[in-house]
Amino acid sequence: MDKEKHFEEERRRMVQTQLIPRGIADESVLEAMRKVPRHRFVPEDLIESAYDDCPLPIGEGQTISQPYMVALMTECLGLKGDEKNLEVGTGSGYQAAILAELSGQIYTVERVEKLSKRAGEILKALGYINIQLKVEDGSEGWAEFSPYDGIIVTAGSPDVPEPLAEQLSEGGRLVIPVGGCYSQELVVLEKKNGKLERREVCGCVFVPLVGRHGWEK
Ligand code: SAM
């Protein structure tokens, strides 16, 4: 079988066996997960594990999240198609690509320059023109383009960073793992009348958000 066909088949299987049975129901999210070539975002030597039911190392001590967690966090944003979103923790660029399939403009911040550069190259090669990247402490958000309809933080934080709450638009959703350094709760905050309504989704394990409004190290 031709290589791309093989990976397309793997994506189909990933959606059928990992996402639908665990309750991911938003058809547009499932479609994006079937479409984006996750194998392009993982290191060359892990390409055959790209669609496995787990996170994978991407270098610099960081990871590309498990497919289910990417789908769940995306579904939690409740995207309709024209939103402006901020991602904190670009990592491999995979989550940004999924968001770019489902909304208008994506801004994504990564603190590790090498990862951001690699993610930018892959996203460009895949033809994404609605993703803007920068290297910075994303716990400060990206004030220049705020407010955002959706903010997704793909690293675990001790608390909700104040700048991110401020940069969320009225009616917008902030999806973030909050808790300890080794395990967190996935939390969805929705801004209603200027206040944040909080909903806890499930337990999760993310690498730490390192920055002024996250962990020190
Ligand atoms: N979303 C990524 C993907 O699709 O591959 C996975 C991200 S990985 C689980 C978490 C990322 O957050 C790491 O690349 C890490 O360097 C980054 N990170 C940690 N603290 C950060 C901060 N303060 N600002 C920006 N990025 C940060």
From the structure above, extract its key features.
217 residues, alpha/beta, Rossmann fold, globular, binds S-adenosylmethionine
Outline of the structure:
The protein is an alpha/beta fold.
Describe this structure in words.
This protein is α/β, with parallel strands linked by helices and 217 residues long. It has helices at 3-19, 27-35, 67-77, 94-102, 113-125, 162-166; strands spanning 56-59, 62-64, 84-88, 105-110, 131-135, 148-153, 168-179, 184-192, 195-204. The strands form 2 sheets. Strands 5-4-3-6-7-8-9 form a 7-stranded mixed beta sheet. β6 (148-153), α6 and β7 (168-179) form a beta-alpha-beta unit. α1 (3-19) packs antiparallel against α2 and α2 packs across α4. It is globular, with a radius of gyration of 16 Å. The mean pLDDT is 97. Residues 62-65, 88-89, 91-92, 94-95, 109-112, 115, 137-139, 154-155, 206-207, 209-211, 214 line the site of S-adenosylmethionine.
Largest sheet: 7 strands, mixed
Shape: globular
N-to-C CA distance: 46 Å
- CATH H-level superfamily of the domain at 60-204: Vaccinia Virus protein VP39
Q: What is the CATH architecture assignment of the domain at 60-204?
A: 3-Layer(aba) Sandwich
The oligomerization state is single chain
In the CATH hierarchy, the third-tier topology of the domain at 60-204 is known as: Rossmann fold
Q: In DSSP terms, counting alpha (H) and pi (I) runs of 4 or more, how many helices? A: 6
Order of helices and strands: HHEEHEHEHEEHEEE
